[in-house]
Amino acid sequence: MNEQAQVPLVKLGDTDLVLADPADDIRGRTVVDAAGEKVGKVDGLFLDHDEAKVRLLEVVDGGFLGLGKESRLVPVELVRSVTEDEVTIDRDEQTVIGAPGYDPELTDAPDYFDTLYQYYEIGPFWAPGAIYRRPPYRP
């Protein structure tokens, strides 16, 4: 396992930070897989506070009036395209459902993000030589 650098991630909605370009705010958009199957909705954006870069999307699915809602984090490296209404990711619905669940109490656990990135089989953003891949936002 890669040793995770202590990277402070913050949920955009829990801060007074704003995105430089309001058009980049994809919260509320439907998340679909490459086959067009609905995975959930973008509920939150997690930023690397030190570098002010979006690193993870919080994708929620299910529930009614907040009950039974399940949250999963999806690395921005998996975003393939963004339209006015949808965010397409490079994993299917079942893969996202099987990902480690997002629990605010666990995101500070030392191995949570290691486990998340290993699950999706991509290198973590804090690894040496990692290159930031900004999500492909709509022009």
Automatic annotation (TrEMBL):
Pfam families: PRC (PF05239). This is PRC-barrel domain-containing protein. Coiled coil: none annotated. Residues 23-93 form the PRC-barrel domain. Signal peptide: none annotated. It comes from Kribbella lupini. Gene3D superfamilies: Photosynthetic Reaction Center, subunit H, domain 2. The lineage of its organism: Bacteria, Bacillati, Actinomycetota, Actinomycetes, Propionibacteriales. PANTHER family: BLR1072 PROTEIN.
